[in-house]
Amino acid sequence: MSVHARPSARGRGQVAALLGLALLVSGCGDARFWARWRAERGAWRAQRAVERIEINPLLAGAGDWARADAACRSVVTSFPAEAWSARVRAGDVMAFDVLEASGRAALSRARLEVLHDRREAAVAGYDRARRDYAAVPTVSLGAAVARANLLAGWGRAAEAEAAWSEIARDYPAVDPRTGTIFEAVLDASVLVARDRRARGDGTGADSVLRSAEAACLLLLPARRGLPAAPGLWVRVSEARSARGDAAGARLALRQALAEPAAAPLAAWLVLRLAAQALESALPDTALVYADWAARDFGGAQRPAALLVAAQAWRARGVPDSALQTYEWIVQEDSGDLDKAAEARFGRARLLEDLGRWDQARGEYHALVSAVPTHPLAFESMMRVVRHHLGRGERILGLTEARHALAALDALIASQQDDGVQVRAGETRARLLFETEDIRGGCGALAALLRRYPEAALDAGFLMRAGEEAEKRLNDTDLALELYRAGAARAVAPELRRQARAAVDRMAGPPR
Amino acid sequence: MKTLEQLSLTGQALSHTFRESRAGRLWTPWLVLGVLQGAVLLALLGFAHPLLAWAVAPVVRAIGGEPALHYPGFYRALPFLYSRVDLVMGAIVGAVATGWSTRLFAARWRREALTAGGAWSEIAPRALTLVLAQLPFQLLVLLFTGLVDRALAGQGGLVQRLGYFATLGGVVGMQALFLYLPALIVLERRGLWRALAGLPRAWARGFWAALLLGLVALLPLLPLYGLGQRSGLLVDRGTPELVGWVTAIQMLVALTVSFLLAGCSTLVYLGAVADQPGEEE
After folding, report:
1. A41 touches chain B (CB under 8 A)
2. DSSP type of residue A181
């Protein structure tokens, strides 16, 4: 190349300027893609780090906790909610994705506090996420729901109810961006109504349910024929059912069934119609729907449908047909152990009510042999013992109790499942109480509580055991332990009040 | 040449090509292609960076759709994205690299002294012919796989599996039909139409060898393609970036296979397909 052919400094400058202009025009230097990529990557990694701890928090080391916390914190601080919310408000579409990723990291961080069992920090974290990411309804609503669930789970019922009320009041039922229905917003009303009814505020509960129903009915016209429609009708049905409007509830279910998108739900809807008809004392209608569900929707739905049919026959006063239907469920051996256990138990109860005790006892024993770890098997043991003791057949009762205790001991020794251990341990304690072995029963419960401090035991039973320990054994420490366990588990306000009063009485004035 | 002789020659060609794979000069065309493919893969992996986004992000969106622009959705789409971009690169740069490699291998097998640069200056004027001659093969593969994919859409289980093997068989068969084209263009110095017209003679003399070579070349690629198809699983298991590494390894293995295929096909061509002294077309 000759000297003259080389570009001059001016020429090079012009080329550089042109290149720069071309890049500027074509969007080079636009960092929004990069910001979104980094935010999404950070949020995803943070979420994975928290999920790894979630598998078993007890096995997570200090390093795992620190890494997960740092991963969450890094995203939240690198992409602050305030700054990115301002960009979203300015109409920047990509900023919305960044804000959503940042919000997900904030939720992961609050979840980390839950796993750490730092309750107040977790509630505060969700509350902060709810407020800071208000521009992203999925994140904000997710935070609000997680907060309400936490409060409910920790027994802070009043705060939980307030949280659910806020959700029902503050959030739209439909995502304004995607048109997706926010199920949690519709659920919130039902939960608020349930809490109000439990508090004895029936009028308030009905009012909330009416607004929930109205909200669903408002959404429905625009969603006729769409996949969301059957679900909305089911919610209408649930709201009406909770208000005691059984006919309205069934009508809503029939509307759901008539929707073009109802096919995946059809079997469940027909079965639900059968169950609701039975609850409304319409056994003939229940039989028609149960027959339809058992016949037309394949094997999976059949045992449940036959179970409703058996109950309907019983309600109609045709016990032989009911017994025959229960027998079909057991004999068809569908593999649904729950339904087979329910059928055996239902058959035994019916035989017992018909005065055919020998056959009933045979069914109870068959149930205990067939599915020994099923809750109804434990219930069967109790019923057999109670039946004999109740009729004054003490020796027979004690013999049955001895057999049952031996079977429970064998189960406790051989089963590793914590749930089975707890249920078997509780049944063992109940049997000891039934046979007047109060010390044995209280001791068994206390041992169970020491081994499984979080076990979901019956609060009423714990209260009764506490009273026995206090009054008949005069064992204050044992009684206090049982009352405390009862107080921690009581859901009904009256029982909780009684349990707390008992704990206060036993613990005495603070020293 | 009888079928058995062709298969025996294929075995020898593989053995000789393996032995010659230590000669760095023979790798030059594939090195150039590898550098280009590596650059493309890196550009795809860094598509979100401000320096690249303006150019690469539209390509990613056009091929993979909006989800491919997000993390970790991009990694789910990466094998498909790369395969589509590589298809274009293979049709242009790959076709020229195959011709260049054929010339270098021919010199090696004939014991001629020829540098990589010398081979390049010989085949450079025929670059366009090489690209155009390979185009029907690329288009046929694209059409065939597209049709099979459409036919299998919504099918599952055994049908899907059979369809997968039918696709592989079809591609190997088509590759066998076009395998000797670069040799016809580069070594016999034929133009586009004369090269295509020379194919029936090549099939008559070396089709079974080409088919066996295609099958052998497919073997090392199968597990990597399988892994690439499960990119969603790699992402869901928490290691999206691993898909990038799998794609890079797939690229390197494909280059090595192309190297072996070029060496073997040239040797089979010289031994069985080309007119021997005294023979006439």
Report:
1. yes
2. B
Full-model pTM: 0.69
Contacts of A26 in chain B (CB under 8 A): 54-55
Q: Are B257 and B217 in contact (CB under 8 A)?
A: yes
Residue pair B258/B266 in contact by the 8 Å Cβ criterion: no
CB of A2 less than 8 A from some CB of B: no
ipTM value for the complex = 0.82
Distance from CA of A28 to the nearest CA of B (A): 5
Nearest to A33 among B53, B72, B240 (CB): B53
How far apart, in whole angstroms, are the C-alpha atoms of residue A220 and residue A237?
A: 13
Measured in angstroms, the CA of B71 and the nearest CA of chain A are apart by 6
Chain B closest-CA separation from residue A120 CA (Å): 30
3-state secondary structure of A156: coil
Neighbouring C-beta atoms of residue A349, cutoff 10 Å? 18
pLDDT in tens, chain A (511 residues): 343 445 565 666 666 666 655 555 454 556 889 999 999 999 999 999 999 998 888 888 899 999 999 999 999 999 999 999 999 999 888 899 999 999 999 999 999 999 988 889 999 999 999 999 999 999 999 999 999 999 888 878 788 889 998 998 888 888 878 878 888 888 888 888 888 887 788 898 899 899 889 988 988 888 888 888 898 899 899 999 988 899 999 999 999 999 988 888 899 999 999 999 999 999 999 999 999 999 888 777 889 999 999 999 999 999 999 999 999 998 887 778 899 999 999 999 999 999 999 999 999 999 999 999 999 999 999 999 999 999 999 999 999 999 999 999 999 999 888 889 999 999 999 999 999 999 999 999 999 999 888 788 888 999 999 999 999 888 888 999 999 888 888 777 788 888 888 888 887 754 4
CA distance A449 to A457: 9
The pair of structure tokens assigned to A498 is 């009684």
Is A34 near chain B, with CB under 8 Å?
yes
